[in-house]
Amino acid sequence: MTQRPTLALTVGDPVGIGPEITVRTLVDTGESAPARGVAVADPAVLRRAAAVCGLDVEVRALRSWDLPEPRSGVIDCYDIEALGEAELPWGEVDRRAGEAAVRAIEVATGAAMDQQVSGIVTGPVNKEAIWAAGSTHLGHTEMLGALTGVTRQNTMFVVRGKKIFFATRHVSLRRALDQITEEQQVASIDEALTALRVFGHDAPRLAVAAINPHGGENGAFGDEEIRHLDPAVKQVRARGADVTGPVPADSVFHRLLEGNYDGVLSQYHDQGHIAAKTFDFDGTISVTVGLPILRTSVDHGTAFDIAGKGVANPGTMRSAFLHAAEFAHFADRIRAEYGD
């Protein structure tokens, strides 16, 4: 066994771009990578992806996490035995593809829970396909929560080492504003500070983004900062935490990049997404915090329109893999903080 951490890479939907970006990532990073990557899929899915990408590699099927020695020009694949040799049409919602995607998540998560791998890196799933397969979960995060016995998880974006958190996520902007209260802000700040500590910031510095233009201008442009954000920041600061804010959103992310903070708590989905993806779209990856295992992920979809053409950019998958290799060193912290 190599001393490098081992990471399980699920390809997501096998008829989306996930298989292509997975094989490209494993080939591009190669034996010099800081972690050993093992794809979790049907080997035939990876062989087809390698072919459309024009890659001359061998796909070695495995049925145990007792891994053989790595070899140049070889991609290791833990065989989930879901599709066999069946070739499904590229870029189409298919129940069988959804079943394979769910099976891969189950296998990889089980391996991480049993500490056979140091973490998982997930490719994009198609929600319609996993629902057609019988899944009752909204997506990856909810499925992982059920598999690990966790009822609350959060997203941490990482872009070039900077962290962004979200007080609200997949709701309308109007509903997001309704969800923001002082109590909710305190909980979100505490969760962000905990995640920063778990992922290596022993004395974390967090900024809380404002909601309204210019931070509300003392109530002239909105009073959420006065009623909810400022009292929450003061409450947490009174405990000795290094929390700043609310900081106007048009400057807080610039100050994050300048090194003034280790992380920013954004107030709604697009506030944080736009900042991260404008700065480095392909380098922005997602980490699910609150799970007792390490999980990084691409932050894009299955791109059915280009699947099977060999043109998908593997940048985000590569970044998710390399960040997971870095964060694997915190696996014990993750397990201790978020486990039973």
Automatic annotation (TrEMBL):
Pfam assignment, any one: PdxA
GO MF entry, a single one: metal ion binding
Coiled coil, from the record: none
UniProt KW Transferase keyword: no
InterPro entries listed in its UniProt record: PdxA_fam
Keywords, in A-Z order: Metal-binding, NAD, Oxidoreductase
Keyword Phosphoprotein: no
Superkingdom per UniProt: Bacteria
E.C. number: 1.1.1.262
Family indicated by similarity: Belongs to the PdxA family. PdxA2 subfamily.
Official protein name in the record: 4-hydroxythreonine-4-phosphate dehydrogenase
